[in-house]
Amino acid sequence: MLFERIESEGLAHYSYIIGDGTEAAVIDPRRDVEVYLKKAREQEMDIKYVLETHRNEDYVVGSREIKNRTECEIWHADRQLEYEYGKPVEEGVEFEIGDLSIEAIHTPGHTPGSMSYLLKEYSGENWALFSGDALFAGDVGRVDLLGMDKAEENAEALYDSIFNKILKLGDEVLLFPAHGPGSVCAESIANRKWTTIGIEKKRNPKLRYDTKKEFVNEIKEKLERPPYFRKMEELNLKPPLLGDIPWPNPMSPAEFQKQAQDNWVLDTRTELSYGAAHTPHSISIWKDGVPSFVGWFLDYQKPISLVTESPQELEKVTKYLIRLGYDEIEGYLSGGMVKWHMSGKNSHSIEMLTVQDLCEKIDKEKELDILDVRGKEEIKENGRIEGAEEIHLTKIKQNISKIKELDDIHIFCGSGLRSMIAASILRNKGIKNLKVVLGGLSGWKSNKCHIK
After folding, report:
1. 253 closest CA partner among 327, 318, 319, 347
2. 154 near 163, Cβ under 8 Å?
3. Could you tell me the sign of the dihedral formed by the alpha carbons of 13, 30, 102, 75, in that order?
4. Is the pTM above the cut of 0.85?
């Protein structure tokens, strides 16, 4: 038997492959599908079905990619949408995988056509539920994606899906959602990789409300929506075929400089490396932050040129970008910043200081402008810097005029990684009086400026 969860770093996306005998099924695959094909080959299984729980908003789905390489059937949810591939699944349909069966259960709320898939063991007993974005560990799916005018209606549907269908399947049933902690498809998914319906009944705060009205009022709020979601919704009606993961073209400093005039320049090195020296007009997003942040700041109108630490990092970053539909990766700076400087090209830098240096500066000199780019929940949990201007990282571009009014900007996030993203964006908007603070509140020792 084959039963594995495939985790996609950064996206907090979970997909699954289940097999028995010589047959397998994949649920919610990502775009680079070799991992599913390889696992099926190793177990001498054919992928018979690809099952989608809903039209995903945060990554390009790999269903057509698997179909292009196998004889599988694709079954998708949200039947009211105009898919250009696969077949719409109906509630109650069962898919046979060897001696196992998988039953489709309509669980609307996150989207109107969302489906969950119930895996039944050999005896026919309920075994595991693949709940998509309906129910997570510690949370439930967001209901605002169709607009706030539909949020209450969707929240009511999600209540019925969870309380009248999912929770009645049995406390012992394993629960396998489509996302883990860090996903933007819910507010606060718990760091609990293994869970059951019974565990969620006891530990999920969103399931503790006594009435449907209380549940609806709690979850119908509007959450942040990354701008790239619109592109994902468009692509996932007919995901473009990928084939092998492309390898970006190496570019000399002269070629890179020429292309950079019309491209996004994405620098995925560490905040220390970027701050010390970077190519003009580049945006800093460290390697492991690419899946979480690139969709907020890079649109799909221009190709991307990359600056990375190494070929190994280049391969990983390319996969991250491809999963988000950034197919136009023009190339990368061959030899990195060393070659850039050896060719006599100009570079920029951003001043950095430690949090201890910042505290000393505040105490010895004067009150400084501190720009705190952490999120509200993070600030609430870890403490507020007295007098700081609080603008979440994802809101930086909308607040450029406000930030320009600050005199000597010290950007704080808790480590320096997100601060450097903010600094690179502000630098490209012509703001030069920037300093990135390295470190978090654990090093805060100012006598004048306190943590609340």
Report:
1. 347
2. no
3. positive
4. yes
